[in-house]
Amino acid sequence: MIRSIGKKLWREESGAVASVYALALPALVAIGGIAFDYARLAAMDTELQNAADQAALAAVTQLDGKAGACARASATAVSHLANRTVYSNVGGTPDITVTGEATCDATGKIKFWQNKAKTTAATTDANARFVEVTVNARTARYALTPIVGAFNSGAIDAAAMAGLGSSVCKVPPIMICSPDPSVPFDANGRVGQGVVATGHSPGSGSNKDNANQGGSPGTGSNTTWAPGDFGFLQVNDPDANNRNAALLRALAYENPPTDCVQIDENRVSTGNPQGLYDAINTRFGIYDFNNNGGGNVLSTCEGGDCPPAPNVRMDYVKQGNGNNSCKIKRGTGGNGFSLPDSGSEFKPVNPGGAYNPVTALHSNTNAIAAMGLPRDNCHYTSFNTGSTTLGFCPGGNGRFGSGEWARQDYFTKYHNSNRPANWQTISRYQAYLWELSGNMPTGGAPTCGLPASNANRRLLTVAVVSNCSSLNGASQPVVIDEWVDVFLVEPASDDTLRWNAFKDAIYMEIIGKSTVAGAGVFGNQTVRRDVPYLVE
Questions:
Q1: Which domain holds residue 137?
Q2: Residue 82 lies in a domain
Q3: What's the pLDDT score for residue 320?
């Protein structure tokens, strides 16, 4: 009997599970409590991170490079942050906040940087390009985790960094090298200054050397980029297999079928369009394409895609109306655009002494057969005879001029009895607009049959690049100091009668800081798109 009862007790299992649970209950409660509190902690972290992301994206929209940009960005981050946390349960308001900063630097809760890698702190409103926002820390009190000895999460914050992704659309992707990369370019302080943008790139110097010009032209390096050298930013085009054609379209077409040009993180194009000067000359009503790598650019240009500006006053003279009459005439005979004969071309000569805008610089203005708005005086090799750098202007960066041009010669030639009141100080662009306002001289309108576009057709927006010395092809992004609007002074030409210092060159005048890249509105050819984005 006793033995039978013992066997029964030995085999009895009822209540065994309860004892196991009793032993495991503290551990189960601890695990469940940790999971509950971890979920609260993760949710609070998400709330804080969302707030930091939104604050950074709001702040970066204010970084336009203008005065007060950093202060506006800071105020925007503070005032536009309306997030709340429902998972922080340690007193105080549920609002998530950020502490504002008064200066452009990389300290405090709102940091400003010049680069995406955060290796160079911003120092001014002009160079603040990225903003990093850290929201003020919050704490979550644990509900069940204290059973294992932890009572709260401690102070937890979140940070986000944002930049402004900007593109300029329908703008020819031209870049020129800054005359002094150590200081901001300041286009608004250079209004009226002439620039000879040379078609120079590493390994391919293109100086013009004509003995009949009375000396040697200015020399430039053949292996490195120099101030005033120009190139092209990368451009995308539906014709992805023909980059040359894409560049030609971007330069010649009024509405090029290209994607937008990035303002940041762009690279030098490795294309080499032989017709780039011809493409730019279409803006003067000259259609001289030879279709070198240009595909169907020529036919579509002549079909209306490349209209001329309404005022194309220039030193070219059009002869005849037959075949090739809209091309540049080479050699003797035939039709086309040509420069005046030697002796009747514009040839400014330095009269000595200080520049005087009322002094004629040509020996006989009445003998000039045709004259366009001229480049800076010192950019003519005829002007500074005796100098070892003909066609260069004084001051160390000779491709950037002084803004002094032959006003007396030009207005005597075309407007002797009707001059603008400020003719002695007027810029070429202002003179161009004045002529269009009802003062157009005979021969200023385009002559090749295509309807003229608007005044902006003779304007370009160019990127002034500050890291030219380190560029080698498309190996690294360019650093764009400023986007600048410029006025095309004259068509590109290599003729010896032009008195050029360079074989390949485009002469332009600075209008000022680009209204496109400054988020303004500029003509009907350009659009700016700014999109804030998170870096981290």
A1: 24-166
A2: yes
A3: 82
Which residue in the block uniquely carries the two structure tokens 């308001």? 93
Beta-bridge partners for 176: 230, 464
Could you tell me if 462 and 176 are in contact, meaning their C-beta atoms sit under 8 angstroms apart? yes
* pLDDT score at 67: 83
What is the CA angle 424-427-428, rounded to 5?
A: 115
Cα 475 to the center of its chain, rounded Å: 18
Half-sphere exposure of 435 (CA within 13 A, CB side): 24
- Residue 267: DSSP 8-state: B
Q: Nearest Cα to 372, choosing from 399, 397, 337, 398?
A: 337
Exposed / middle / buried, residue 352 (Cβ in 10 Å: 0-12, 13-18, 19+): exposed
Supply the pLDDT for residue 88. Answer: 55
CA-based Rg of the chain, rounded to a whole angstrom?
34
Asked if residue 119 belongs to a domain, the reply is yes
Query: Could you give the CA distance from residue 123 to residue 112 in angstroms, rounded to a whole number?
Result: 8
For 457-474, give the DSSP string. Answer: GGEEEEEEES-GGG--TT
Q: In whole angstroms, how far apart are CA 506 and each of 197, 379, 401, 486?
A: 5, 11, 13, 11
Measured CA to CA, the distance from residue 393 to residue 232 in angstroms comes to: 24
Distance CA 135, CA 159 (A): 6
Q: Which residue has the tokens 């011809």?
A: 278
Is there a domain that residue 311 lies in? no
- Angle, in degrees to the nearest 10, between helices 69-79 and 16-60: 140
Residue 252 CB-density burial (10 A; 0-12 exposed, 13-18 middle, 19+ buried): buried
As a whole number of angstroms, the distance between CA 98 and CA 83 comes to 11
Contact assessment for residue 205 and residue 222, using Cβ atoms and an 8 Å cutoff: yes
pLDDT, residue 434, reads 96
pLDDT recorded at residue 49: 82
Copy the structure tokens of residue 347.
Answer: 């040839």
What is the amino acid identity at position 26?
A: P
DSSP 8-state assignment for residue 164: E
SS3 175: strand
Ranges of residues in the chain whose predicted pLDDT is under 70: 1-41, 82-93, 140-155, 166-172, 199-224, 235-243, 257-267, 269-274, 290-299, 302, 331-332, 385-388, 396, 473-475, 515-531
Do the Cβ atoms of 38 and 87 come closer than 8 Å? no
* Number of Cα atoms under 13 Å in the Cβ half of residue 408: 13
- For residue 36, what are its two tokens? 């509950």
Residue 91, domain member (yes or no): yes
pLDDT of residue 511: 93
Using alpha carbons, list the distances in angstroms from residue 97 to 113, 292, 532.
21, 61, 21
The predicted model scores a pTM of: 0.71
- The number of folded domains in the chain is 1
